[in-house]
Amino acid sequence: MIRSFKAGRVTAAVLAAGAVTALAGAPAQAATTPSGSASWTADLSTVDTDDVNVAAAGGTLTLADAAWHRTARVFAGSEGSLITAEHALGSAANRVNAQLTADAPKGTSVEVDVRGRTGVNDWTEWTPAGTTLKTAVSSVQVRVSLHSDTDGVRPAVRGLALSAESAPQVNALAATTPLTYKVYGTREGLVGGTTANGHKIVSHDHFVSFPSGKSVSPKGTGTYTAKVCRTDGSKCEYAPVWEIGPWNERDDYWNPASVRSEFKDLPQGTPEAQAAYLQGYNHKKDDSGRTVQNPAGIDLADGVFWDGLGMSDNGYVNVTFLWTGSGPTGVVTTAGDPMNVRASASTSAAIKGLAANYAKVNIECYVEGDTVAGKFGTNNIWDRIGPGHYVSDTYLQTGSDQPVAPHC
């Protein structure tokens, strides 16, 4: 039976509870509502390169392969997601409500998350529909995630109506300096596998993973980027978030309790796996009931682990969640390989680490230095992206031909 219900997250249990109203299963239509509208219908018929394991046919969005899942997922079943085109709102709003028309058999679920644009390269975190964003925005994207716990069983979404509104701002996360926490890092590995955003993992790859979908960047982007450093600060890498894990899947531990999805009684900055492993929290289990075998709060792709940080074994690292700060940003744009981060504005200065392609970095200020020919022309402007960390401006996409930050 096709039913309509509000989203967030909807499971078969919700449908069985009889708390929703059955509707006729009319096929979903492509969004025809013009930009500038506070109410619109999502286009579920267009699947493109930033979508993962979904198919749209006959007005229905479903899993393309009912047995596929990202390589790091250790359970049976399948998953997939679709990200809609950006939609401009008529006026600023901080909450988007969603009404799904869907069929979710037992053991399946459908989730709707929303994010709002806050700058040229900047977005809020993915936030469950119906909850407030961290600030009012004028443009949003929607992510529809489909999950199944059993191979061969698929949920189906036939319609998604959306509406934006202004609500009391109860979970504002205003910050000028991004949050930094010391957490245990483990090597991702899994070369040849696939991440949560559909990226195929290659040898010496450059991305990181956190145990929450709130910070997963769409494929080929670095909207959510972390700065990961050895605890002595000797080497760092700026790398995009492309995966979910380790251990938990809903543990945005960098957020305060007012926003954190689960484990709200833990201190901000403490991963649940760390508390479970070291303190016996949650009977030493993660959110799927597995016994936690290490205190990991971040997974590091091999290139970050070996090349960026020079690590030979798992261990603690200092992680800065760059998207939690504010200020000018730029997106690292190379031919594919990461670029060197220098100690000063010189191509012969000491290498302090790496900045991966697609990484979105915060620009503190700029200086003049060696002239460099890069992806965006030739000049002598170098951007400071962290204390003692400089990169040529010719490799940063900032949306401007002029420096976007003040002179150092």
Search tags:
single chain, 408 residues, mainly beta, Jelly Rolls, Barwin-like endoglucanases, SH3 type barrels, 3 domains, 12-stranded antiparallel β-sheet, 6-stranded mixed barrel, 3 helices
Q: Which secondary structure elements does this structure contain, and how are they paired or packed?
A:
Elements: E1 3-7, E2 9-11, H1 12-16, E3 21-22, E4 39-41, E5 54-57, E6 60-63, E7 78-83, E8 87-103, E9 108-116, E10 127-128, E11 132-148, E12 156-165, E13 179-187, E14 208-210, E15 225-230, E16 236-244, H2 272-279, E17 296-300, H3 302-308, E18 315-321, E19 329-332, E20 339-342, E21 351-355, E22 360-362, E23 365-374, E24 377-386, E25 389-392, E26 396-397
Parallel strand pairs: 13-17, 14-16, 16-21
Antiparallel strand pairs: 1-3, 1-8, 2-9, 4-12, 5-6, 6-12, 7-11, 8-11, 8-12, 9-10, 9-11, 13-18, 14-17, 15-16, 15-18, 19-22, 19-26, 20-21, 23-24, 24-25
Count of folded domains: 3
What do the pLDDT scores average to? 91
Helix and strand composition category: mainly beta
Number of strands: 26
> CATH class of the largest domain, please?
Mainly Beta
- How many distinct helices? 3
CATH architecture of the largest domain: Sandwich
Please state roughly what percent of the residues sit in beta strands, choosing from under 5%, 5-15%, 15-25%, 25-35%, 35-45% or over 45%: 35-45%
Level of helix content? Answer: under 10%
Q: Roughly how many Å apart are the termini?
A: 62 Å
- Do you know the CATH topology of the largest domain? Jelly Rolls
Low-confidence stretches: 1-5, 11-32
Q: What is the 3D shape?
A: globular
What's the alpha carbon Rg, rounded to whole Å?
21 Å
Major β-sheet, in short?
12 strands, antiparallel
Element order, helices and strands?
EEHEEEEEEEEEEEEEEHEHEEEEEEEEE
